[in-house]
Each structure stands twice: as structure tokens, then as C-alpha cells.
Amino acid sequence: ETGVTQSPTHLIKTRGQQVTLRCSSQSGHNTVSWYQQALGQGPQFIFQYYREEENGRGNFPPRFSGLQFPNYSSELNVNALELDDSALYLCASSLNVHRGPYEQYFGPGTRLTVT
Amino acid sequence: RKEVEQDPGPFNVPEGATVAFNCTYSNSASQSFFWYRQDCRKEPKLLMSVYSSGNEDGRFTAQLNRASQYISLLIRDSKLSDSATYLCVVNAASGTYKYIFGTGTRLKVLA
After folding, report:
1. From A102, which residue of chain B is nearest by alpha-carbon distance?
2. Which of A1, A6, B65, B88 has its CA 20 to 30 A from that of A28?
3. Would the CB atoms of B101 and A103 count as touching at under 8 Å?
């Protein structure tokens, strides 16, 4: 096990609603990255948080936002949900992202269904 | 051209066979390369990092070809438990935080 946890495991929401997903990083890791994985696709980078600051963002609209807390846990918030937001949301924790290649360890994911 | 490309497969191989996957990447400045394994409806798990000199971990060998911009994964003596999707991961550009995943190559090892 990676020690990365996510909650909830599954979630069903209605179009237009808002959702918050949570992630606890592996002990000692100061960076959390969030990914969206649609069925049959590879994970798509949403954004990364390093020491409570956003450290980069992929091609996702502003209704995808996040936070990182002093204990390095993180939240992903999605507003105005759309049907296409249905996916597996993964968080990955890592250490020392500014010191060269870094390995990421994934949590089990949250499966979001938007109806 | 996609930033990271993989043959989606599936690759159906008998137990004991040797199988190889390639993954091409578009940015010549990329410096970090990884292979992840993902089982159905589970999270990706780090299989191995890929170093310039190539590296081996048991039955798995990873290699990097910078000139042709691809990485490869070789699995020897395939086991039923190797059945999974193998994801290639590359950083978007030198020194950046953003990792790009391929769509994955599906492997099915048959008894």
C-alpha cells in the first residue's frame, strides 16, 4: 500500500452541483497532484500543490480548484458539474518535486458519476 | 502528434512468453520517464523508473532511446498476474512538475 488515502470512494452527483474530493498524502510527502481518468484513457493532469501553493495546472477550466493544507492533505473542488466530469479522480503524492525526477504514489481514487 | 503515444493493444500472450511495449514521446527536452501498471478499476502503481542506461528489475527491463524518443518495457517469462494495463509516463519538459500519461497498453497473459 502507498499510504495515500482518498475519500469518498464513490460519489454520484447531479449536473450543476458541486463536489469536494479529499486526499491524504503519504507521510513525509509535501506534494499532491490530482488527475482525472476517463474510461479507457490515461490519467490527465489537473494540477499540483507543493507546500500549500499551486505548482502548475493542466488544461482544466477554473471550475476545477484545489487546496493543500499545512499537513499536506489536499482537496479537489469541482463546481457546476457536467456529465463529462464523470471519471476516476486520482491523487498522487510525492516528495521534492524540485530536485529532479520524482516518483508519484497514487491513492485508490474517487469514482465520480454525474447524472 | 500526441505528447505520449502507446499502442493500446490488447497484447494477448501465452504464459512464459516475452513481450515488449514501446512508448513514444514528442518533447525532446523530457527528462523523467516511468512505467506504471494499472489493474482494472484500480489506481496506477509505479512499476519502475527508466534511466538513461536502462534498468532491470527481475523479469522487467526498461530502456530509453533518446535519439528516437521512445521508451520500452520488456517482460520476460510472463505470468498470469502480469495481465494489466501498462502506462508510460513522461514529464512535459525538462525540470517541470507536469507528468503526461499515455493511454496505456493492455496486456493479457493466457494460460
Report:
1. B32
2. B88
3. no
The rounded distance, in Å, linking the Cα atoms of B36 and B68 is 21
| Three-state SS sequence of chain B | CCCEEECCCCEEEECCCCEEEEEEECCCCCCCEEEEEECCCCCEEEEEECCCCCEEECCEEEEEECCCCEEEEEECCCCHHHCEEEEEEEECCCCCCCEEECCCEEEEEEC
Q: How confident is the model at residue A100 (pLDDT cuts 50, 70, 90)?
A: low
CA B77 to chain centroid, in Å, comes to 17
What pLDDT score does A99 carry?
64
Q: Is A103 in contact with B104 (Cβ distance < 8 A)?
A: no
Q: What is the edge-to-edge ordering of all strands in the sheet holding B55-57? A: B4-6, B19-25, B70-75, B60-65, B55-57
Q: Which residues pair with B75 in a beta bridge?
A: B19, B60
Residues in chain B with pLDDT values less than 50 = none
In A1-115, at which residue ranges do the beta strands (DSSP E only) sit?
5-7, 10-13, 19-24, 31-37, 44-50, 53-57, 64-68, 74-78, 87-94, 105-106, 110-114
Q: Which of chain B's residues have a Cβ under 8 Å away from the Cβ of A103?
A: 34, 46, 49
According to DSSP, residue A52 is labeled T
Amino acid at position A41, single letter: Q
A104 to chain B, minimum CA–CA distance in Å?
Answer: 7
Is residue A98 over pLDDT 80?
no
Q: Hey, what's the cell of A4?
A: 495515500
pLDDT of residue B47: 95
